[in-house]
Amino acid sequence: MPIRVVSFDMEGTLVDHAYSKQIWEGDIPALYAEAHGLPLEEARKKVLTEYAEVGEGQPEWYDVGYWWKRLGLPHYWRDLPKRRKAECNVYPDVPSALARLGKRYPLIVCSNTIREFLKIQLECIDYPFSKVFSAPTDFRAVKKAPDFYQRVCEILEIEPTELAHVGDHAEFDYRAPKQLGVKAFHLDRSGELNGEDVVHDLSEFAGRLL
User: Fold this and answer.
1) Tell me: domain 5-16+89-209, CATH 3.40.50.1000, correct?
2) In the chain, domain spans
3) What is the pLDDT of residues 122-166, one digit of tens each?
4) Is the Cβ–Cβ distance between 202 and 97 less than 8 Å?
5) Which long-range contacts does 63-66 make (Cβ < 8 Å, 24+ apart)?
6) Residue 24, Cβ neighbours under 10 Å: how many?
């Protein structure tokens, strides 16, 4: 079947990791140090250890509200995503790739990022995506299994083979959707990988679909 919808991961695909990294590895450890009277580096090691205990395969790993409670942080967190908007960096190939593909396909976002972060990142990209899906916020899930992409296809009322998806995570953005029949591409911006379904930037991805 021909492709009817094109899907993008967010972090590592449309924007780099600086925004989330500042919050997860900078702001949260700093608040933890303040709350528990610890030196910053000791607090950072403790917080990173806590993250690792949960792991990126669990939806809680992406949920700032969960970590606020678990770590006993002192301030309400919902203004934090907006305050760090300046750290949001859009990859230079994104605007032209979206413009090219958007002339032919509806474009959507399928991400493991919570919706509060996505809102800021979408403002930085400034493109009218048809739909935006946050796996942890919308489904209390992670993109590690084909089930997530099945639910997306059902909402869009398309077959998995009619969806193309690109992202930088080999498991979440390539192998999981590929198992379902999605036309999935693994984005490797480092240029180290090669293969039939590997692309090195979004210009190359657009060229594969147009």
Assistant:
1) yes
2) 5-16+89-209, 18-85
3) 999 999 999 999 999 999 999 988 999 999 999 999 999 999 999
4) yes
5) 63/114, 63/136, 64/23, 64/28, 64/114, 64/116
6) 19
Residues in the chain: 210
Residue whose tokens read 């919808």: 5
pTM for the full model? 0.95
Is residue 126 packed enough to be buried (19+ CB in 10 Å), middle (13-18) or exposed (0-12)? Answer: exposed
Residue 125: half-sphere exposure toward Cβ, Cα within 13 Å: 29
